[in-house]
Amino acid sequence: SDWIEVASQRDELWKVPLMATLMTLLAAEEDDATSLPKERAQILALAVERSVTQWEALRGGVPESGHRTQLIEGFACIGYTLANHDSGASVAEVTEVLQTRLRAEWGCSPGASKALAEDIISFWDSNVGAFLPDSDGRVVPRARHLVDIAEAMWAQRIANDLERSQWVNRLINRKDGRESGLLAAQLCPDVHRLFVNAYLNNHPSGRR
């Protein structure tokens, strides 16, 4: 299909074997499944989600309640953390951010949140090969586009307009924010609206 031909030429995600496999499978399904998303961001987000469901299927047994969602939200949280650390983020820093999220969103105890945060980091390292701890103890992405789609998925999950607007304003002033912004705008109509409003505010002549 057209999108996979273009993606294979430009997306660094193809350096991540499981993601490349999943996107290939999605392309094979596209001819028979008209309900599959057409936007690039939605396809990439779906590939991320499929990496979790495929792992659960291979592992067997009954998945723990909420664990799949925690892994996906963990992916988004890791990417957002890396995107907003100019010099990279240490494993300890990423763990702390995940712990805070797990306590706030899932009501996890300090001990449980730490164990689950470590499990999430291990999953995206060992099972998918997306975010890898390096020899200096910092978490690094296998491909920059993993950070971009993860941050876009994080923006999609922002709970209120004020926080979402603040994120958009920060991204506009960030040198490497363009791709995350484009993907987030495809995933979330509210983000798209905020980018349009920001553009019109900075370019009054664009209003009609």
**How confident overall, as mean pLDDT?**
82
Biggest sheet layout: 3 strands, antiparallel
Please give the oligomerization state of what you see. Answer: single chain
N-end to C-end Cα span: 38 Å
Features:
single chain; 69% helix; three-stranded antiparallel sheet; 10 helices; mainly alpha; 208 residues
If you had to describe this structure to a student in words, what would you say it looks like?
With about 210 residues, the protein is mainly α. Helix content is about 70%, strand content about 5%. It has ten helices and three strands. A three-stranded antiparallel sheet has the order 1-3-2. A hairpin with a 4-residue loop joins β2 and β3. The longest helix has 20 residues, at about 40-60. The chain is globular, with a radius of gyration of 18 Å. The mean pLDDT is about 80.
